[in-house]
Amino acid sequence: MKVILTDDVAGTGKAGDVKEVADGYARNYLLPKRLAQPAQPRAEAQIRAQKERQRHRQEAEMVAARSLAAQLSATIVEIAARAGETGKLYGAVVNIDVAEALEAKLGTAVDRRKIEFEPAHEVGEYEAVVKVHTEVEARVRVRVVAA
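The structure assignment produced for this chain is given below.
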């Protein structure tokens, strides 16, 4: 029987795939659990249109991520922190501070969990890696200065 999977099924395929499966498997497992629907020309056309919309959306997200990464890479963030006379900080500058500084400078919120930054304990220049998208990263220069 030819079916269109509506959900990912281990060992059979991913959502949206058109598969030829055994009649009993389709009747007794896939269809009652709504993991698949019978393959009909109208349903296949809907699935193709849905995949096309999803592909367009992913392309738009990738373009937006690349433009944000370019904007971030061109940015130098300056963070003022309390420091002693030798340049050691009273505390540390961490990824939360970098996220707040980026939001203040660019006006774009960046999730702190997507920023890889080793805590800075001294005044100086550092580099933070921002994961904008699963395939796109941006390197941001961070300048820590004494306040």
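Interim note for the steering committee: The radius of gyration is 25 Å. The chain has a mean pLDDT of 93.
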